[in-house]
Specification:
Layout lengths: L3 E6 L4 H8 L4 E5 L11 E3 L4 H10 L2 E7 L14 H14 L3 H14 L3 E3 L1 H4 L8 E4 L5 H17 L7 E5 L2 E5 L5 H9 L3 H4 L5 E4 L13 E2 L1 H9 L4 E5 L4 E2 L2 H11 L2 E5 L2
Parallel strand pairs: 1-2, 1-4, 2-3, 4-5, 9-11, 10-12, 11-13
Antiparallel strand pairs: 6-13, 7-8, 7-9
Length: about 270
């Protein structure tokens, strides 16, 4: 690895954790992107991405990590700099695709400028979990059947670049993560009438899509996920070992234990 590290900050707890672990890094925020980071060294409009790249080069940045939720902030084409104008056709194509298409474009833009893109899990390996039980009781036989069904669904949807999570209860599919995210899916499940879901329980399975580049948009769970799972009446969460970020890990596990919800990591 070479050059200074820049943390490109979005929402959530991850940017702050990275900033604490790498105090010499350049902390960057963007207009119309909510960011949670203890300090801001540079702030840019996304429409002037060319100027942003020039500034990174002038500061000696050779590595970047995209940390936290950035989403798809609004862009004003009238404010595009020359670089963004040239990038326009590629950007339009990526925006019409799924999140993976946009992630691949972001990575390629940095790499074309000679900047290495790192995953947050590469800089903070403790963000992910090795296989095993992290909280609660071992999944039951019924849970295992639901886990297998949810995993099969996510694998089948991977080529369509749809989502990273699914909820199954008693063999019934109650939710599939879409562009709105995991929290929205869990709210939808919580609002599902009992007559449509059978008995209580169920599991959330969270895993990357097949072939997904984990340097950008790595799946994540946090305390809010546990709260959503509790309200949805789920028994537990199963995550892909070493491929899902645990946000505020200690608080996450305490919340799961308090709610009686299991968290299990396995090689999905």
């Amino acid at each position: 690895m070479r050059g200074k590290l820049a943390i490109l900050a979005g929402g959530g707890a991850m940017p702050a954790a990275l900033a604490r672990a790498h105090p010499d890094a350049l902390c960057v925020t963007f207009e119309n992107v909510a960011a949670a980071i203890p300090r801001v060294d540079a702030h840019y409009p996304l429409e002037a991405f060319g100027g942003f790249l020039d500034d990174l080069a002038a500061r000696g940045v050779g590595r970047v990590v995209l940390a936290g939720e950035i989403g798809r902030p609004p862009l004003d084409p009238a404010k595009f700099d020359a670089f963004m104008v040239r990038l326009g056709p590629r950007l339009l194509g990526a925006l019409q695709g799924g999140d993976d298409a946009l992630a691949r474009l972001v990575i390629s833009v940095f790499e074309e400028q000679g900047i290495e893109v790192l995953g947050a899990h590469e800089l903070l390996p403790e963000l992910t979990a090795a296989p095993g039980l992290l909280a609660g009781a071992e999944p039951s036989a019924r849970n295992r059947a639901d886990i297998d069904r949810a995993t099969d669904i996510l694998l089948a949807l991977s080529p369509l670049d749809v989502g990273q999570g699914a909820v199954v209860a008693n063999g019934l599919v109650l939710g599939i993560e879409t562009q709105q995210g995991t929290d929205a899916m869990l709210r939808f499940v919580a609002d599902t009438p009992e007559s449509l879901r059978g008995t209580s329980g169920g599991v959330l399975v969270k895993r990357p899509k097949q072939g997904q580049d984990l340097r950008v948009d790595m799946p994540a769970i946090g305390p809010d996920t546990i709260d959503g799972a509790r309200k949805a009446g789920l028994d537990g969460l199963v995550i892909a070992a070493r491929r899902v970020v645990l946000i505020e890990r200690d608080r996450l596990i305490r919340a799961a234990e308090a709610a009686g919800i299991f968290i299990f990591a396995e090689d999905l």
